[in-house]
Amino acid sequence: MASSSSSDDDHHHHHQLPNGSTSTTPPDIQFEFSHHDPTIARINNGSFGSCPSSVISAQQEWRLKWLQQPDDFYFNTLKPSILKTRLVIRDLINADHVDEISIVDNATTAAAIVLQHVTWSFFSSHFQEGDCAIILHYAYGAIKKSLQAYVGRAGGHVIEVKLPFPVNSDEEIVEEFKRGLELGRANGRKIRLALIDHITSMPSVVIPVKELVKMCRDANVDQIFVDGAHAIGCVDIDVKDIGADYYTSNLHKWFFCPPSVAFLYCRKSDILNELHHPVVSHEYGNGLAIESSWIGTRDYSAQLVVPQVMEFVNRFDGGIDGIKRRNHEKVVEMALMLSKAWGTHLGAPPEMCSSMAMVGLPACLGISSDSDGLKLRAHLRTCFKIEVPIYYRAPVKGEDNPVTGYARISHQVYNTVEDYFKLRDAVNKLVNNGFTCALLSN
């Protein structure tokens, strides 16, 4: 019987595919990810992603091609091969032109490209001191630091929109964002940039980006940048529908590429010609996509394997869309199983989870700081062979026995139900043994 891809790869039940079409079976998946440490319950695909063996082999071939005859590769192969990757991305995210797609190292590099342009706008007096950028409080740490480095140093003001967590609906996020926009425009200030996450990292929540982008347009925000670091391979992306000026996503998180590769989409406009890669090399002035395709001698192989990644995902029923759907369904199922076992709740309703979900940990574990979360994570890694990030949420005044710790679980094709049982049992064991974070030494 042909088995479906991962969602039911707990080796117990397999879906029959229509027309007897071939699909990836659990042994295939085990082979493709046989380089993973088999002793670890790896439920943290969100942090560093995963790359199948067939793609690693393809990457190795690209590396050897370069090393065999670098000059020929540089003059005749590199740019056309990066163009192939750009064409695949253009179609996957529904962009109009391949010129709108640049391939860069990661979402942090993409942010540097956009923020560098914002900085120049301050220096050229196009933007005034005190004009502001707006960002979500849960924005990724590196992106917050980037805003500090680029916008803050140029005299801009950064406004963080506080978001509720646990969160119950999109409306709660929309309301808070509305308040942030009002604050940004107070005293005649101008909001020059809005930086909006598509999926926040910690805590992980899918943000109603299309609505927030529209609110920014209505509030005359100059430029809108969506940081979709986790998005490609995890949720649907339609850049025309979302309507932002810039959109970035890492291909090494949920899209099976080796590290590190990401795309930056820049909507065709006058600004596109003013954007430059922060690493200036020979292609400076030839447009961002071409500048990005050569930033000096380095290993470009991660950027070239996207066609092979497409071959890999197309071995699954429904391709990348099928993988996304099953990962989402499975992570929600596992999150509900865990919250039930621990007597807690999810940090967001299922429709606001992607292929990641936040699951409340028992309050008696005594997670009372970010460092407690890190210590507990390390304890689970060393003593139980489980890799899962833990988020600390400060209690609100008057809360009775509040849930202050949440595990961020991921589901990718290589995960099995046993991985989540291992986490469930480990936490239950800690609870039964009267463990608290206070017992862990610094």
From TrEMBL:
Q: Where is the composition biased (Polar residues)?
A: 18-27
Indicate the segments forming the Aminotransferase class V domain, all copies: 82-280
Q: Is NAD included in the keywords of this UniProt record? A: no
Q: Where is this region: Disordered?
A: 1-31
Q: Which InterPro entries match?
A: Aminotrans_V_dom, PyrdxlP-dep_Trfase, PyrdxlP-dep_Trfase_major
Q: Which domain of life is it from?
A: Eukaryota
Which Pfam family is an annotated match for this chain, by its short name?
A: Aminotran_5
Under the heading SUPFAM superfamilies, the entry gives: PLP-dependent transferases
Q: Which UniProt keywords apply?
A: Pyridoxal phosphate
Protein name according to UniProt: Aminotransferase class V domain-containing protein
Q: Which organism is it from?
A: Cinchona calisaya
Q: What lineage is this protein's organism placed in?
A: Eukaryota, Viridiplantae, Streptophyta, Embryophyta, Tracheophyta
